[in-house]
Amino acid sequence: MKPTAHHSRPGELLLVVDDDDHICTIMTQMLEGLGFRVLTSLDGTEALSIYEKHQAEIALVITDMLMPFMDGSALILALRKINPWVPVIAMSGFAAQRAKAEQAGGADTLFLPKPFSLSGLEDKIRTILPRPGKPSKP
């Protein structure tokens, strides 16, 4: 089945963070198929640097929770210091990571259990990204 671009603004830039380069590659293909532009990072420290450089453009960060150097929780907390309203989707194959993601990110963080389908990913993105006409936070 061919994916459909249901998100609100074609061409939005997303940052994908996962220490598995194979997952980054697959996520990039999935997201580009939905019409997004994608930046990737293999660790939280690098992701934070990328976000600082491109924060005005990045509409959403999708991060794995279990990574070396800087895990997903620490990355989410660091991102919130830069931009308290950055939307984040935290992903993990371990259900216990949901509570850590929610604790780190609050209401602007959704949890996506691994493995997931393209439609599951797309549903989370549509849930978290602002729609046209929806006021954004300052």
What does this structure look like?
By secondary structure, this protein is of the alpha/beta class. It has one domain (13-125): Response regulator (Rossmann fold, 3-Layer(aba) Sandwich). 40% of the residues lie in helices and 20% in strands. The chain has 5 helices and 5 strands. It has helices spanning 21-33, 44-54, 72-82, 97-105, 118-128; strands at residues 13-17, 37-41, 58-64, 88-92, 109-113. The chain has a 5-stranded parallel β-sheet with strand order 2-1-3-4-5, sandwiched between helices. The longest helix is centred in the N-terminal third of the chain and has 13 residues, at 21-33. The radius of gyration is 14 Å and the shape is globular. Residues 1-7 and 133-138 have low confidence and may be disordered.
Descriptive terms for the model:
single chain; 138 residues; alpha/beta; 5 helices; 40% helix; disordered N terminus
Going by CATH, the homologous superfamily would be Response regulator
Briefly, what CATH class? Alpha Beta
> What is the distance, rounded to the nearest whole angstrom, between the alpha carbons of the first and last residues?
38 Å
Please give the radius of gyration in angstroms.
Answer: 14 Å
CATH topology: Rossmann fold
